[in-house]
Design brief:
Blueprint (H helix, E strand, L loop, with lengths): L7 H27 L3 H23 L5 H25 L7 H11 L2 H23 L4 H89 L1 H27 L4 H4 L3 H11 L7 E7 L7 H22 L3 E8 L3 E8 L18 H12 L3 E6 L5 E8 L7
Parallel strand pairs: 1-2
Antiparallel strand pairs: 2-3, 3-5, 4-5
């Protein structure tokens, strides 16, 4: 018999067929015993043992599969059929055992072979019954024929159920595999998002802070001989910037707000950034606030601060500007941050071409702003300066 794994309903159907064979065999053996037919009783008992052995071996040899298992099942079916034929000739009690054998034929053999086999088995059952009765009657023809038709129909339903269950099992397996792949994709996406976040933080905070420290130390070295006092102030400013950068690095690990926002408002933090971001350069920065300041969510404060740091970092490194202006504007339904400089500018269609920049800073700023549903606009042309404008819609509870 087949070694397929059946769902409970199909397994129950199989055991119902086996049970039918066992019941009919017991009835036949009992009938032969009442008539004093010793050989049919012994033969029927041996047939039952052989049938049960086949079922037992099938359940105990799960390592057999495919063609090997199928060949064993068909060999078992041939032996059972020969035993039934001998018993049907010996005693009329065993003729009706052909009914469960119909199912075995339809289950173990290809349909092109099983249907002729069922027809031959039906004719054999009719002839055996006629042999014992001494003639052919309509009942002897109709009984086995109806049994064969019912068995064929049930076997078809059985195979259809099995095919459907297999398709469902394959679909479930595919869904499980797809779910596993989806979990992997989501995990990869989360890791990439975290890498992107860290890259933005490093670029907008640590890299800008390091640039400020370098500029301050260069200015201090220039002033060291002519104005030691001014050089000392630059060194103090560089030390303060280094301490703030160290705190930024620690906060990356703890996922806290930037140090510039931990003990002050966004306006104060932007004013301080405007004073220190271009220290040591010839650029003068003016900070302005327009409208009435109002508390914003922490992620808004962080985004606007990072945009200002990134834009002023570009001014200090690339613009060569004389003047720059940072304007924070509060409107009824949005907040805007405008960073403008009168430096050399660049071609906005090729931001990576500006000075020695890579263009990553603008992309990082744009991604930060778009995360909150805002927009980042960059206006510039060679020789005409640069304007970076970040616009964030106010949360519903904050809008006027």
């Amino acid at each position: 018999m087949s070694d397929y794994l059946f769902p409970p309903a199909l397994r129950m159907l199989r055991w119902a067929i086996h049970g039918t064979f066992a019941i009919l065999l017991v009835i036949a053996v009992a009938g032969a015993a009442r008539q004093g037919q010793a050989l049919p009783v012994i033969g029927g008992t041996l047939l039952g043992v052989l049938y049960a052995a086949g079922i037992f071996i099938e359940g105990r040899l799960p390592h057999f599969g495919g063609q090997t298992h199928l060949r064993l099942g068909r060999l078992w079916l041939v032996v059972i059929t020969l035993g039934w034929a001998a018993l049907a000739v010996a005693s009329p009690q065993f003729v009706w055992l052909a009914f469960p054998l119909f199912f075995a034929y339809l289950h173990l053999l290809p349909l092109a072979v099983a249907l002729p086999g069922v027809a031959v088995l039906t004719v054999a059952a009719i002839l055996a019954a006629a042999w014992h009765e001494g003639g052919l009657t309509p009942a002897q023809v109709i009984g086995p024929t109806i049994g064969a038709a019912v068995a064929t129909l049930m076997a078809m339903v059985y195979k259809a159920l099995y095919t459907e269950s297999e398709e469902r099992r394959l679909l479930i397996d595919d869904l499980v595999r797809t779910r596993g792949k989806l979990v992997e994709v989501e995990s990869d996406a989360a890791r990439l998002a975290e890498r992107e976040r860290l890259a933005r933080e490093i670029h907008d905070a640590l890299a800008q802070g390091m640039s400020s420290i370098i500029l301050l130390l260069r200015a201090a070295r220039r002033d060291l001989a002519d104005d030691p006092g001014k050089a000392e102030r630059r060194i103090v400013e560089a030390e303060a910037a280094a301490k703030e950068n160290l705190e930024e690095a620690r906060n990356f690990v703890r996922a806290l707000a930037p140090p510039a926002l931990q003990h002050s408002s966004l306006v104060a933090a932007l004013r301080r950034i405007s004073d220190t971001a271009v220290a040591g350069t010839c650029t003068t920065v003016r900070f302005e606030v327009s409208g009435t300041p109002l508390p914003l969510p922490a992620d808004y404060d962080v985004t606007l601060l990072r945009v200002a740091q990134g834009a002023l970092g570009n001014v200090s490194r690339h613009a060569g500007a004389e003047h720059a202006r940072v304007t924070l504007t509060y409107l009824d339904d949005m907040v805007m941050l405008d960073v403008y400089d009168d430096g050399r500018g660049f071609d906005v269609s090729n931001p990576a071409g500006q000075a020695t920049g890579t263009g990553y800073g603008l992309r990082a700023m744009r991604e930060r702003v778009s995360t909150l549903g805002g927009t980042l606009t960059v206006e510039s042309s060679p020789g005409d300066g640069t304007a970076v404008v970040a616009t964030l819609p106010l949360p519903r509870g904050e809008a006027a």
